[in-house]
Amino acid sequence: MATVAQLDAATKAYYLPQMNLVFTEHATLKRFVGKGKKVGSGEPIKIPLIISQDAGATSYLRTDTLALIERPILTENHYHWSLYMAGNKLNKVSMMFNSGAEAVVNLLSATMETIKEDLQTHMAAGLFTVHATDAACGADMYSITDYLDYSTHATIGDINRSLPEGTLFRSNLTTSAGAFSYDMMANMMNDCLIYGKAFPDTIITTQTIWEKYWKDTFSKVGMMDSQKAISDTAVKFWGADVIWDSNVPSGEMYFLNTKHIYLVNHPKDNFSWSGWVDVEQTKDRREFEGRMFWTGQLICDKPMSCGLLQGITV
User: Fold this and answer.
1) Domain locations along the chain
2) What are 71-84's pLDDT values in tens digits?
3) Contact 67, 292 (CB under 8 A)
4) CATH class of segment(s) 4-54+77-313
5) What digits encode the pLDDT tens for the residues 277-302?
6) Beta strand 287-300 with 240-244: parallel, antiparallel or unpaired?
């Protein structure tokens, strides 16, 4: 039977390098990584804001009094780190009955795949789950919903978007969009361009709305032209990938500029491994236990580059 040292060596050599598949194998998560964004390891995370401050510019006459109005200036926002963990067990009896090197590798592969899938499932759900608390690090990551639904989630990090100085950290939000149409998508794309200076590159919605979009696209342009609007991963709208995710709340469609909404990893805890631990003496079970850890956060430094349609009906 393999020793703890052998199991750890195999895990670190073959399985830890594959943990980034948590992101890259998921249709939604992969869109928020690989942006080259790096942050320090301190608490809290400090992110410079990319927003246009209102300076009160105006024209004037030579005889005018040049009065200035003091305005609050926001330069950065602060976020806590979010902590994620997934663990699994190796049964020592099963390993004893499958003691050949190939059999042990198969057992280890299945165990590590389960850890990867559990992390992936939990983190993907976190993209659309309302953030629990700002009290301390350890809560779920901020969600896309938190960033874009400012009418329900006014405070994000240290910024209260219900206050005048927080208005520039709002998204483009329509709360009662109504019956699905191309026009509503086009209008939101234009709003994101006007206020965020670029079109969104990714649109995420529910399966029901996506299928309505596909049906309308197919009936409008036919098979050949609708296929031309498909990239290797998604249908297109004005150059943006249109995908669906089972975690998106009913009736919602998110317009995202992934240059400004992205995942960051803690430099000291980016898929770190606990090591396999023999718990036979401590828990009276003939098992090895191991855990994978990830610390990070979903960051949006310019919500006005993104948009959210709520209350869509099909």
Assistant:
1) 4-54+77-313
2) 556 678 888 899 99
3) no
4) alpha beta
5) 988 888 888 888 999 999 999 999 99
6) unpaired
